[in-house]
Amino acid sequence: MSKIREMVEDAFADPKTENSIVKPYALTHGTLESYSLKNSRRFYEKFLGLECVQHGPRTIAVRCGFKFHIIAVEVGNELNPVGYLNHWGVDVATREEVDAAHAAALAMQEAFGIRSVTDAVDQHGVYSFYIQDLDHNWWEIQYYEAGYQHTDMFEFGDVFDSSKSD
C-alpha cells in the first residue's frame, strides 16, 4: 500500500459553498512558471519525485498523490520570481526523510540548479526546510508528526478571528 493510502483514508472534503457565489466542486490545479520545461521536469521527477506529463508545447502537468495538479508553464526570461511564502508543500513520512532530502539538496544543489536551501527546523507544527528551485519557485519538504496535516488543519477550524484585525 502506498504511503498516501495508508495515511489518508478519505481524500474528499465536501465543499462548503452554501454561501458563496461560485459553487465549485473541487480545487483542481495551480500554476507556476518555468524558464525551461526540460530542466524543470528533470528537477520535479528526479529530485522531488513528482509525476509529470507534457500536454502542450509550453506546459506540463505535475502531481503527487492526489487528483490535484500544478501546471508548469515555460515562459523563458519573462519568468516572475516568487518569495518563499509562495511555496509548494511536499510531505514525507518521517523526520529522517526530511533530513535525507535536506542532505541531498545540499549535495546535489549544483546538479539540479537549486538556488537556495534553508536549514531544517521545527516550525508551524512541522519539521521542514525550503528549497528554491532553478525557476525561483519555493518548495517546503515537511514531516508532520501527528499524521496528515491537511486533515488536522481543517478539523481544528478557525483558531484566529481575522474580522478583528486591520
TrEMBL record:
<dbReference type="InterPro" id="IPR029068">
    <property type="entry name" value="Glyas_Bleomycin-R_OHBP_Dase"/>
</dbReference>
<protein>
    <submittedName>
        <fullName>Glyoxalase-like domain protein</fullName>
    </submittedName>
</protein>
<feature type="domain" description="VOC">
    <location>
        <begin position="26"/>
        <end position="144"/>
    </location>
</feature>
<dbReference type="InterPro" id="IPR037523">
    <property type="entry name" value="VOC_core"/>
</dbReference>
